[in-house]
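Dear colleagues,

For the upcoming journal club I promised to circulate an example of a predicted protein-ligand complex. I picked one with molybdenum atom because it came up in last month's discussion. The inputs are reproduced below in full, followed by the predicted structure.
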Amino acid sequence: MDSKKPNRRGFLKGGAAAAGLAAGALQPAKAQKPASQWSEKGTNKEIIAYGERSRFVTSVRAPVAERDSPDAFGLMFHVLTPLQDSVGSITPSSLHYVATHRGSYVPEIDPKEHRLMIHGMVDRPLIFTMDELKRLPYVTRVHFIECIGNRSKPTHKTVQETHGMTSCSEWTGVLLSVLLKEAGVQNGASWIVAEGAEEIKGASSVPLGKAMDDCLVCYGQNGEAVRPQQGFPLRLIVPGFEGIFQTKYLRRIKVVDRYYMTYNDYGHINPDPKVSALGNQIGPKSVITFPSGGQKLSGAGFYEISGLAWSGAGAIRKVEVSTDGGKSWKDAELRTPAYPMAHTRFGLHWNWDGKACELLSRCTDELGTLQPTRAESAKYFDRPLDANFRVPGADNSVQSWKVSSDGSVHNGLA
Ligand SMILES: Nc1nc2c(c(=O)[nH]1)N[C@H]1C(S)=C(S)[C@@H](COP(=O)(O)O)O[C@H]1N2
Ligand SMILES: [Mo]
């Protein structure tokens, strides 16, 4: 059943029915009590003030295996999004991955006290309160963020471990270009330095061209204020660039005429132009989230292969899926709007014959760049493709999931 539009009866006959999902098997939801739970729990905070998800939904973030988070000092490093349970393209804010570099904490910032200063090579240095920023024209855009550390390793079992350092939100804020035009950028300026408000000052140098193009000074995330772990009350979004450019707790932007070395450059700046170029424009990259490592197919029959594709260079144009280890490829359907620099959900109807197989996905972005295999990455970087091969910088290589005949799914790198 690989044709693009199989009919509904086809699904039931070929797949779902075989898996015990025939209509007769459905039971009415009689266990559910009527609305009396409202009175039982009274003014329960979750029911009235801020909603909780169902207690039957248990998908949670997890720390990276390589490094405890929180560590012995109670500090957080990298916390991974459970992509294996994701649907659509937006990551729930409470499941957004978290990266606080150098073991920083999440600062508690009173938005009334918070200021954003724009200075350096400008005609009019400016200081904005949050209220003043919110009076300005704003935009709302969907963008992914991805940490440079997001890479599949043979020890990783699940897609949360291999790819969980990327998430996608709907961001609302003022275009940085609006603020820079207000301040009046002087001739000769070529970079900006963005600084966060923590004591270690997450900071990054961004080319002025990018700053004037599509960077966002955000106060909104997924319909509410940016979450504390994502940079409340203000965060810079540099669409498509490596995670470290996405300065949280944004408090200062200095317009300068050269690249400024900051604390962030430790471990992130790379003299090899082949490597550093790829950090400024992440991807194109894709991964199958179902079926993925650690999941189990309940038997032969119909499934939907589902996954996410994204690119730092623009919108996703095409996603292809292989169910035979790369011998043949089929076009997947894009199931969410393909916004520039945003996660895009793809899906493909699949009738599993119950035999061992290898699933791969690869995407092409609007520049026409095709996501490379690990072999192609190794060739590009002129390194041998052996067990030790690690893509330098941003790793956007194709992820393989191996399905065994018992339905279990494993990381193809293992
Ligand atoms: N101020 C500040 N900004 C920061 C960081 C930080 O620790 N402090 N971490 C950076 C890194 S390394 C990444 S990958 C992204 C992660 O954003 P998130 O925690 O919202 O997912 O934020 C970047 N911006
Ligand atoms: Mo990062």
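Two points we might discuss: The first strand starts at residue 62 and ends at 63. The two ends are 30 Å apart (CA to CA).

See you all on Thursday,
B. R.
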